[in-house]
Amino acid sequence: MEDNEFSTPTERRLAEIWAEVLRLDTVKRDQDFFEIGGDSLLATTVVLEACRVWDVKFTVRVLLAAPVLAELAERVDELVARAGQRPQREAM
Predict the structure, then answer these.
(1) In a domain, 50, yes or no
(2) Residues in Cβ contact with 35 at an 8 Å cutoff, skipping those fewer than 6 apart
(3) Which of 3, 24, 80 is closest to 13 using CA atoms?
């Protein structure tokens, strides 16, 4: 994945998480998690990893409400801003 495909570092990092969990080579910012092979169990894995990476807490409901990568990244950025934190942790 090239950095210029994404609008924010959060989009890029979230795309890496999705690609790893879904076993895909690439994920684009406008793709829907469930349309590219995601399901509720994989959503749980994505949410747990995102919570770990950004050190915030949210539930699968956030991903269900924002299943497009760019939308979910925006929600994660909002959670991080509210918590006053930055992504600091490495991948799984």
Answers:
(1) yes
(2) 67
(3) 3
Domain extent, residue 77, equals: 3-83
Domain harbouring 18, CATH code: 1.10.1200.10
pLDDT (tens digit, 0 to 9) for every residue of the chain, 92 residues total?
454 589 999 999 999 999 999 999 999 999 999 999 999 999 999 999 999 999 999 999 999 999 999 999 999 999 999 988 555 555 55
Q: Output the pTM of the full model.
A: 0.85
Phi-psi label, residue 31: left if phi above 0, alpha if psi -120 to 50, beta otherwise: beta
Instruction: Compute the distance between CA of residue 84 and CA of residue 27 in angstroms, rounded to an integer.
Output: 28
Q: Are 55 and 83 in contact (CB under 8 A)?
A: yes
Q: Which two tokens stand for residue 56?
A: 């915030």
Quick one: which H or E segment has residue 27? none
